[in-house]
Amino acid sequence: QVQLVESGGGLVQAGGSLRLSCAASGGTFSLMGWVRQAPGKEREFVASISWTADKPNYGDSVKGRFTISRDNAKNTVYLRMNSLKPEDTAVYYCAAHISATVVAGTYDYWGQGTQVTVSS
Q1: Distance between CA atoms of 97 and 82, rounded to whole angstroms?
Q2: Backbone angles phi and psi of 86, in degrees to 5
Q3: At residue 115, does pLDDT exceed 90?
Q4: In angstroms, rounded to a whole number, what is the distance separating the alpha carbons of residues 34 and 12?
């Protein structure tokens, strides 16, 4: 049974930093990523990373501020978030995909989400 367990969310002031972690169990995944959803808004792609970690991808709103990484030995993906803004406030979901390409955000597996709140 596949499980994705996120941790590291919380409350931070604007300009601060947080690091999210997502520990996967029950499988190995060619692609892992983070997607967020703010209240009243659609889900938004944040970042993704392949098994080889050679081609991370980022959403336009987080480029230059967020860094995705993974530790395959631990089956864990991380999201380092710097220079946080109030508009980064959302529930952040970890997602995993068996194949290397995901279409329209339809990842195979999802975590339960972790809340990130950035105060101004």
Answers
A1: 26
A2: -55, -35
A3: yes
A4: 19
